[in-house]
Amino acid sequence: MTSSAHAQAQHGYHGATIGEIADEAGLSNGAVYYNFANKEDLFLALLGEWRTELIADVQTAAGRPGSAAPEHSFDDEVRHVVETLKRGREWRLLLFEFVTYAARNPEFRQRFAAGRQNFKAALASALADRIAAHRLQPAVSPAQLAVLVSALVNGLAVDELTEPGAIPDDLLATALRALMDPGAPAGPALAT
Question: Are residues 8 and 94 in the same domain?
Answer without folding.
Answer: no
